[in-house]
Amino acid sequence: MGDEEKRNVRRIERQFRWIEALAPAMRAPLSALRARGWGIVRVPIAIFLILGGVFAFLPVLGLWMLPLGLLLLALDLPFLRPWIGGAIIRLRRRGAIWLRWWRRKRAT
User: How far is CA 80 from CA 16, 28, 38, 72, 108, in A?
Assistant: First the structure.
């Protein structure tokens, strides 16, 4: 595994740690899914989460499912890691900017 690949794996792991910090109840299921040998289970779950994120307008499903499904899929498909890791980071940054703007607007 080259330096670039190690960097991409660390980036994906950081995103999982962020999700676990945001929703501590997800820590145990995500840790189990990330374990070696779970690829046969992880890929169908990732596809289900991606589809659930696409159909976020339906009850019970939500947009939160899309990034989680993409992160799980990136664990098994190494060529997706740089793209998915970068996209999730950009999404988090844009979300933080939007949240600051929204709070500032509400405060005035």
Answer: 15, 24, 18, 10, 42
Encoded tokens for 31: 């840790």
Tokens standing for 24? 């501590």
pLDDT (tens place) for every residue of the chain, 108 residues total: 789 899 999 999 999 999 899 889 989 999 999 888 888 999 999 999 999 888 888 777 788 888 899 999 999 999 999 999 999 999 899 999 999 999 999 987
Buried b (16+ CB within 10 A) or exposed e, 82-93: bebbebbeeeee
Backbone dihedral region for residue 59 (phi beyond 0: left; psi -120 to 50: alpha; all else: beta):
beta
Report the amino acid identity of residue 75: L
Helix/strand/coil for 36 = coil
The tokens describing 57, both together, are 């307008």
Contact indicator for 33, 41 with CB cutoff of 8 Å = yes
Say whether pTM exceeds 0.85. no
